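Design request, tokens follow.
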């Protein structure tokens, strides 16, 4: 089984401004979820991947970056594979309500990416 990209995030110092830009340019539908301080992006069209826009809390190489999230069936197993291949775990498993869990990692060149496990996956 492959691990498709299922979500992306733009990390920004000005999420509202970035959201307005992409709405105007690409006609994306962006819904602000104030309780999570997150903007869910619906890109539209067929075969597109939806994403989100957020302002990360804490220090890190966040603003101005883009992360893709790969769908996996076992976060712990993929974290082990990442480390064995020369990557680094930046954020251990975090739950996102009832939707699922994610972790963040850096590849050997420092690009930040994510792992996503849907809550209803076996």
């Amino acid at each position: 089984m492959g691990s498709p990209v299922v979500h992306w995030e733009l990390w920004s110092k000005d999420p509202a401004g970035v959201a307005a830009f992409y709405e105007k340019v690409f006609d994306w539908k962006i819904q602000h979820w104030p309780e999570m301080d997150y903007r869910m992006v619906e890109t539209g069209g067929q075969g597109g991947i939806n994403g989100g826009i957020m302002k990360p809390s804490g220090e890190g190489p966040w603003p101005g970056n883009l992360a893709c999230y790969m769908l996996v069936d076992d976060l712990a197993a993929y974290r082990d594979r990442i480390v064995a291949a020369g990557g680094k775990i930046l954020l251990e498993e975090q739950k996102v309500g009832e939707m699922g869990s994610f972790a963040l990692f850096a590849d050997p060149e420092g690009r930040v990416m994510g792992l996503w496990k849907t809550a209803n996956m076996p």
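Comment from the thread starter after seeing the answer: thanks! The beta strands are 5-11, 29-33, 38-42, 51-54, 65-71, 88-96, 100-106, 112-118.
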